[in-house]
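>> Question from a student workshop board

For tomorrow's exercise we were told to take the sequence and the ligand below, predict the bound structure, and bring the output to class. My setup keeps failing. Could a helper post the expected result so I can at least see what it should look like? The ligand is S-adenosylmethionine.
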Amino acid sequence: MAESDRKKWDAKYSDTNHQIEHGEASYMLKQYHGQVTGKRALDVACGTGRNALFLAALGFHVDALDISSVGLKRLAEAAVGLSGQVDTRVVDLDGFSPPVETYDLIVVTNYLNRPLIPKLGASLLAGGILVMDTFMLDQRNEVTHYNPDYLLKKSEFTEYFQTGYQILKFEEYCVKNSGCGMWKQAIAVRKLG
Ligand SMILES: C[S@@+](CC[C@H](N)C(=O)[O-])C[C@H]1O[C@@H](n2cnc3c(N)ncnc32)[C@H](O)[C@@H]1O
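>> Workshop helper replied:
Here is what the output should look like for this input. Compare the format with yours to find the bug.
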Protein backbone atom coordinates (compact mmCIF):
# COMPACT_ATOMS: atom_id res chain seq x y z
CA MET A 1 0.00 0.00 0.00
CA ALA A 2 2.77 2.45 0.95
CA GLU A 3 4.57 1.83 -2.34
CA SER A 4 1.46 2.68 -4.36
CA ASP A 5 0.99 5.79 -2.18
CA ARG A 6 4.54 6.86 -2.89
CA LYS A 7 4.09 6.44 -6.65
CA LYS A 8 0.77 8.27 -6.63
CA TRP A 9 2.05 11.26 -4.66
CA ASP A 10 5.40 11.44 -6.45
CA ALA A 11 3.48 11.65 -9.73
CA LYS A 12 1.19 14.40 -8.38
CA TYR A 13 4.05 16.45 -6.99
CA SER A 14 6.07 16.01 -10.20
CA ASP A 15 3.31 17.89 -11.99
CA THR A 16 4.30 21.49 -11.42
CA ASN A 17 0.71 22.56 -12.16
CA HIS A 18 -0.37 20.65 -9.06
CA GLN A 19 -1.35 23.42 -6.67
CA ILE A 20 -3.64 21.67 -4.16
CA GLU A 21 -1.17 21.62 -1.27
CA HIS A 22 0.23 25.07 -2.03
CA GLY A 23 -2.55 26.94 -0.32
CA GLU A 24 -2.49 28.61 3.04
CA ALA A 25 -1.57 26.80 6.22
CA SER A 26 -4.31 25.05 8.18
CA TYR A 27 -6.64 27.61 9.77
CA MET A 28 -6.47 25.73 13.10
CA LEU A 29 -2.65 25.84 13.02
CA LYS A 30 -2.83 29.59 12.44
CA GLN A 31 -5.07 29.95 15.49
CA TYR A 32 -2.98 27.87 17.91
CA HIS A 33 0.72 28.02 16.94
CA GLY A 34 1.15 31.07 19.16
CA GLN A 35 0.13 29.16 22.28
CA VAL A 36 3.29 27.04 22.53
CA THR A 37 6.42 28.23 24.27
CA GLY A 38 9.07 26.28 22.33
CA LYS A 39 9.91 26.20 18.64
CA ARG A 40 10.28 22.48 17.89
CA ALA A 41 7.58 21.31 15.43
CA LEU A 42 6.63 18.21 13.46
CA ASP A 43 4.63 18.26 10.20
CA VAL A 44 3.29 14.75 9.51
CA ALA A 45 2.56 13.74 5.88
CA CYS A 46 3.63 17.26 5.01
CA GLY A 47 3.39 16.99 1.21
CA THR A 48 4.93 20.10 -0.30
CA GLY A 49 4.77 21.65 3.13
CA ARG A 50 2.27 24.49 3.39
CA ASN A 51 2.17 24.02 7.19
CA ALA A 52 5.93 23.46 7.59
CA LEU A 53 6.70 26.58 5.55
CA PHE A 54 4.26 28.65 7.60
CA LEU A 55 5.94 27.52 10.83
CA ALA A 56 9.50 27.93 9.53
CA ALA A 57 8.69 31.50 8.50
CA LEU A 58 7.83 32.08 12.17
CA GLY A 59 11.18 30.69 13.33
CA PHE A 60 10.13 27.13 14.15
CA HIS A 61 12.54 24.23 13.59
CA VAL A 62 10.29 21.80 11.70
CA ASP A 63 10.80 18.09 11.09
CA ALA A 64 8.78 17.42 7.92
CA LEU A 65 7.89 13.79 7.13
CA ASP A 66 6.36 12.31 4.01
CA ILE A 67 6.63 9.26 1.80
CA SER A 68 7.10 11.39 -1.34
CA SER A 69 10.68 12.47 -1.98
CA VAL A 70 9.37 14.66 -4.81
CA GLY A 71 7.10 16.62 -2.45
CA LEU A 72 9.89 16.93 0.12
CA LYS A 73 12.32 18.24 -2.50
CA ARG A 74 9.85 20.97 -3.42
CA LEU A 75 9.42 21.81 0.25
CA ALA A 76 13.19 21.97 0.86
CA GLU A 77 13.60 24.35 -2.09
CA ALA A 78 10.79 26.59 -0.84
CA ALA A 79 12.23 26.66 2.69
CA VAL A 80 15.57 28.22 1.69
CA GLY A 81 16.00 31.60 3.36
CA LEU A 82 13.26 31.24 5.98
CA SER A 83 14.14 32.25 9.52
CA GLY A 84 13.43 28.79 10.90
CA GLN A 85 14.70 25.47 9.61
CA VAL A 86 12.91 22.61 7.83
CA ASP A 87 14.45 19.13 8.02
CA THR A 88 12.78 16.88 5.46
CA ARG A 89 12.76 13.12 5.84
CA VAL A 90 11.30 10.37 3.65
CA VAL A 91 9.28 8.16 5.98
CA ASP A 92 6.62 5.49 5.50
CA LEU A 93 4.23 6.46 8.30
CA ASP A 94 2.62 3.01 8.37
CA GLY A 95 4.14 1.53 11.52
CA PHE A 96 6.21 4.65 12.21
CA SER A 97 6.76 5.95 15.77
CA PRO A 98 8.00 9.51 16.28
CA PRO A 99 10.36 10.18 19.22
CA VAL A 100 8.59 10.54 22.57
CA GLU A 101 8.24 13.87 24.41
CA THR A 102 10.06 15.85 21.73
CA TYR A 103 7.80 18.43 20.06
CA ASP A 104 6.11 21.66 21.15
CA LEU A 105 3.76 21.56 18.17
CA ILE A 106 2.59 18.78 15.82
CA VAL A 107 0.40 19.24 12.76
CA VAL A 108 -1.31 16.66 10.52
CA THR A 109 -3.64 17.80 7.77
CA ASN A 110 -5.49 15.94 5.03
CA TYR A 111 -4.01 12.62 6.10
CA LEU A 112 -5.57 9.99 8.37
CA ASN A 113 -3.52 7.24 10.01
CA ARG A 114 -5.47 6.10 13.07
CA PRO A 115 -2.75 3.98 14.79
CA LEU A 116 -0.39 6.97 14.57
CA ILE A 117 -2.62 9.37 16.53
CA PRO A 118 -1.77 8.12 20.07
CA LYS A 119 1.92 8.06 19.08
CA LEU A 120 1.71 11.72 18.09
CA GLY A 121 0.30 12.49 21.52
CA ALA A 122 3.23 10.64 23.10
CA SER A 123 5.61 12.66 20.92
CA LEU A 124 4.38 15.98 22.37
CA LEU A 125 6.12 17.64 25.26
CA ALA A 126 3.89 18.46 28.24
CA GLY A 127 2.04 21.66 27.33
CA GLY A 128 2.58 20.99 23.62
CA ILE A 129 -0.21 21.29 21.06
CA LEU A 130 -1.41 18.85 18.39
CA VAL A 131 -3.45 20.17 15.46
CA MET A 132 -5.25 17.79 13.10
CA ASP A 133 -7.63 18.53 10.25
CA THR A 134 -8.94 16.07 7.68
CA PHE A 135 -11.97 14.82 5.79
CA MET A 136 -14.89 12.96 7.32
CA LEU A 137 -17.59 10.58 6.21
CA ASP A 138 -20.84 12.51 5.94
CA GLN A 139 -23.99 11.94 3.95
CA ARG A 140 -23.84 15.60 2.89
CA ASN A 141 -20.47 15.09 1.10
CA GLU A 142 -20.76 15.86 -2.59
CA VAL A 143 -17.50 13.96 -3.28
CA THR A 144 -18.32 10.30 -2.75
CA HIS A 145 -15.46 8.38 -4.34
CA TYR A 146 -13.02 8.62 -1.39
CA ASN A 147 -12.14 5.38 0.41
CA PRO A 148 -14.26 5.51 3.63
CA ASP A 149 -11.37 3.87 5.54
CA TYR A 150 -9.57 7.22 5.30
CA LEU A 151 -12.53 9.33 6.40
CA LEU A 152 -13.32 10.22 10.02
CA LYS A 153 -16.50 9.15 11.73
CA LYS A 154 -18.62 11.81 13.44
CA SER A 155 -16.72 13.39 16.37
CA GLU A 156 -13.99 10.77 15.98
CA PHE A 157 -11.06 13.11 16.66
CA THR A 158 -12.36 13.87 20.16
CA GLU A 159 -12.34 10.16 21.10
CA TYR A 160 -8.53 10.04 21.11
CA PHE A 161 -8.14 12.84 23.66
CA GLN A 162 -10.48 12.00 26.54
CA THR A 163 -7.72 11.75 29.16
CA GLY A 164 -4.42 13.58 29.46
CA TYR A 165 -5.37 16.39 27.07
CA GLN A 166 -7.31 19.62 27.04
CA ILE A 167 -9.38 19.99 23.89
CA LEU A 168 -8.81 23.61 22.90
CA LYS A 169 -11.11 23.54 19.90
CA PHE A 170 -13.04 20.98 17.86
CA GLU A 171 -15.07 21.74 14.77
CA GLU A 172 -16.86 19.99 11.94
CA TYR A 173 -17.12 22.21 8.89
CA CYS A 174 -17.65 22.11 5.13
CA VAL A 175 -15.07 23.06 2.50
CA LYS A 176 -15.21 23.27 -1.25
CA ASN A 177 -12.90 20.58 -2.60
CA SER A 178 -12.44 20.86 -6.37
CA GLY A 179 -15.70 22.77 -6.45
CA CYS A 180 -17.64 20.22 -4.38
CA GLY A 181 -18.64 20.32 -0.73
CA MET A 182 -16.75 17.98 1.62
CA TRP A 183 -17.07 17.81 5.40
CA LYS A 184 -13.99 17.97 7.61
CA GLN A 185 -13.02 17.77 11.26
CA ALA A 186 -10.40 19.98 12.87
CA ILE A 187 -9.08 19.71 16.40
CA ALA A 188 -6.44 21.40 18.55
CA VAL A 189 -5.47 19.73 21.84
CA ARG A 190 -2.96 20.56 24.53
CA LYS A 191 -1.10 17.76 26.32
CA LEU A 192 -1.46 18.07 30.08
CA GLY A 193 1.57 17.45 32.23
C1 LIG B 1 -3.49 15.08 0.79
S1 LIG B 1 -1.74 15.13 1.01
C2 LIG B 1 -1.63 16.24 2.41
C3 LIG B 1 -0.38 17.06 2.40
C4 LIG B 1 -0.28 18.12 3.50
N1 LIG B 1 -0.41 17.54 4.83
C5 LIG B 1 -1.32 19.20 3.31
O1 LIG B 1 -2.35 19.17 3.98
O2 LIG B 1 -1.12 20.07 2.47
C6 LIG B 1 -1.41 13.53 1.78
C7 LIG B 1 0.08 13.27 1.98
O3 LIG B 1 0.24 12.04 2.69
C8 LIG B 1 1.42 11.42 2.21
N2 LIG B 1 1.36 9.98 2.51
C9 LIG B 1 0.44 9.08 2.08
N3 LIG B 1 0.72 7.85 2.57
C10 LIG B 1 1.85 7.98 3.31
C11 LIG B 1 2.65 7.07 4.07
N4 LIG B 1 2.33 5.76 4.16
N5 LIG B 1 3.74 7.54 4.71
C12 LIG B 1 4.08 8.85 4.62
N6 LIG B 1 3.36 9.76 3.93
C13 LIG B 1 2.26 9.34 3.28
C14 LIG B 1 1.40 11.73 0.71
O4 LIG B 1 2.66 11.60 0.12
C15 LIG B 1 0.86 13.17 0.70
O5 LIG B 1 1.91 14.10 0.69
